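Quick one: structure tokens for this chain, please?
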Amino acid sequence: MPDQNPVFIPGPTNIPDQLRAAMNIQTRDHRAPDFVETLAPLLRDLKKVFKTSDGTVLTFPASGTGGWEAAITNTLSPGDKVLVARYGMFSHRWIDLCERHGLNVHTVDIEWGRGAPAEHFEQLLTEDEAQEFKAVLVTHNETATGVKSDIAAVRAALNKAQHPAMLYVDCVSSLACMDFRMDEWEVDLAVSGSQKGFMLATGMAIVGVSTKAMQAMDTATCSRCFFDFRDMANANTNGSYPYTPPIQLLSGLKASLDMLLTEGLDAVFARHYRLAEGVRCAVAAWGMDLCAKSPELYSDSVTTILTPEGFNADELVQHAYDAYHVSFGVGLGQMAGKAFRIGHLGSLTDVMTLSGIATAEMAMKDLNYPIQLGAGVAAAQEYYRNTLTLTTQQAA
């Protein structure tokens, strides 16, 4: 029964049985008056996860990439100048999307394994005396490298430079896994999706929009129709969608939010940190290095592990799948063949994570990696044992 093994990729994530059941519903009339009783509470609860009271949360039938496109097309115009750093595959893809929409993209290339360069952003924004930059784009959690960027520091850079540019954040693989503070960090556009921390099937883009970003629609001239914020917001006010909504995903999202808020967001974040730290203990026991250059950059959603010289990481991932029916993440972009990724977000426990660590060890041993079988598992076990009381207290 290989299909019962959990996946250890950074999304789509494992789907809890109760969320699968919640999505397994019969078609209902989305024009019926009682649909508002489903949609309105769901949107209110999403605001709690984004930690916004002032912003508006909109959902679209799409993946996170659709959310990126919605953010760009609703608030910017062709030729607008935007500032973005490239430090992984997903920040690179956001750059590509901006260029395809005719934006003037100022790209700062950063070594993969490092995060958003807040100090350099501050310098560039301060030098922008004409205030030509309309937006600063940041990937909060870069899943290609396992790097978490400091969004508060980027906001501080904007404020120190006294620059009016909007702040856009890709939080696709961080929201509902790591702390995200839309209002406190003055984030104007926050883009996420259903298939990561929300533990659902792929198919829903979830976008947090500030008042400032909504007002930017008045002058933005990028073409938009399906992803029009105003159409969606107006329909949501009346308890509906401007077109046919993904009823099954909305049902799953309601159940997901119930799970997350019942566990408590702080407990959710602590659980992700604990799972990630156990994986990092295992990597250290293997004598391997992380792609992330320093501890403050470590992601609690995914760990990207550099393989030793002479070993192809893609072959390791393929062998783990062929031999043990377990999926790990391959290296992307500059990390292709050089690193593999262990995703530890969404519906996972320490016991499930230990099975992933053990499988990675078996696959590496099969391919003659210089590791001691059981070393990583033991290191993670010791960490999980020693932090079990703390976790129990937090849950209580």
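The first helix runs from residue 17 to 23.
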